[in-house]
Amino acid sequence: FESHLHACAACQAETRKYEELIAELRRPLPDAKQSDLAPDILARAQAGGRHGTTLLRIAALFLCFVAAAAIVCLLRPEGGSKYDQRVSAAIEWLCTVQEPDGHWDAAKWGAQKNYTPGITALAVLALFKNEPDALGGPHSGAIRRGLEYLLSQQNEEGRIGAVHSGTPYNQGIGTLALLEACGRAKDPRWESAAARALAYIRSTQQPSGGWGYPRGPADAGNTSITVWQLQALLKASSMDQADVRPNIEKGMAWLSAVVDADGRVGYSRTSDFPYGHETLTAAGALCFLSDKSAAPSPHLPKVLRALRDAAHRQSDVDYYRLYFMTQALAAAGEANTDVAAKLREALVVCQADAGSFDARDRWSSAGGRVYATAMAVLAL
After folding, report:
1. N or C: which end of the chain has fewer CB within 10 A?
2. Does residue 234 contact residue 287 with C-beta atoms inside 8 Å?
3. Region at 215 (left for phi over 0; alpha for psi -120 to 50; beta for the rest)
4. Which of 72, 180, 65 is CA-nearest to residue 121?
5. Does the global pTM surpass 0.85?
6. Percentage of the residues of the chain whose pLDDT score is greater than 70
7. Cα–Cα distance measured from residue 327 to residue 357, given in angstroms and rounded to the nearest whole number
8. Radius of gyration over every alpha carbon of the chain, rounded to an integer in angstroms
């Protein structure tokens, strides 16, 4: 911009106009009498007969709204509005870059094409998280288009997307998005798709109880894949779908078997940490905490200790890890602790002016900017 400006007289003139306007707006206003308008409005309303009575009621209602708004602002946790604004900006960016058929183009935003269903599902989950009445709110169109795309990617046996190494991620996250939709509104198509997606997850569970990569060796389960399938099954269980309980119990038993004496969750066995234990431990903690239909896992206290220790030492930006850490801390009732606030602060510095989040962690080569932005929204 500066290089162009140096050689362009027209842009120089436009820039001077804006500089003059900004200078004018910064100039202090002359001193003016400050007054509360409410007493004068009420006095006039009371003196106005029948019409005045109507005005009085309107004015009183308006003042009640003002008072309520003030109370809400006072009760809002400090810093909440800052995160709300950042989340809103990220949501707007996600809606802006959605494709007409409802998907988010993984390749266009630096991701691997095969992960498009999973990336789309993550974006849908992010849109859901931002609004209590998401299916009736301003982003309902984007959500419904995203769900339509997921439906179009599901085959008869319930698999979402093609078969490749990323299929379990597409499946787990896609199923979560469908279940979230079913929990918000009754739609037979969504319910049927969610049921088939859950059936596919159950059919791909290994005899050991975990889940692994397709076409891999038998019983080569790993935590990174298993936790997404468990999250989908646990979501279904919370919606009173009792038929998933046997699969949950087998999956939780597998997960318990990879926890070491220090509470660290391994990748495929105890003390197996290809990229460190922090993300795996946070994901495992979230699963243990989410299983409300069973007695608390005996491993939970030590896993939570390992999670808190890892969260205190968190230094680099890893959206995947920060997502699981913030979700697990929230599930443990520790969303407002100093360590949780520190994790959120690590995220906000990654947001670009347009609202998206920089694709800067080790998984961004697979997930790209849409993954980074959706994960940041869910973590914030």
Report:
1. N
2. yes
3. left
4. 180
5. no
6. 85
7. 19
8. 26
User: Which structure tokens are listed for 112?
Assistant: 């691997």
Select from 196, 226, 191, 193 the least CA-distant residue to 212: 226
Location of structure tokens 């003390």: 271
Residue 79 pLDDT level (bands cut at 50, 70, 90)? very low
Within 8 A by CB and 6+ apart from 104, the residues are 94, 97, 98, 116, 119, 120, 123, 146, 370
Q: How far apart are CA 196 and CA 89, in angstroms?
A: 34
Number of Cβ atoms within 10 Å of the Cβ of 329? 24
Dump pLDDT digits (tens) for 340-366.
999 999 999 999 989 999 998 888 888
Output the furthest CA–CA distance in the chain (Å, rounded).
86
Q: Which two tokens stand for residue 99?
A: 């494709």
Unique residue bearing structure tokens 């990569």: 213
The C-alpha atoms of residue 285 and residue 201 are separated, in whole angstroms, by: 21
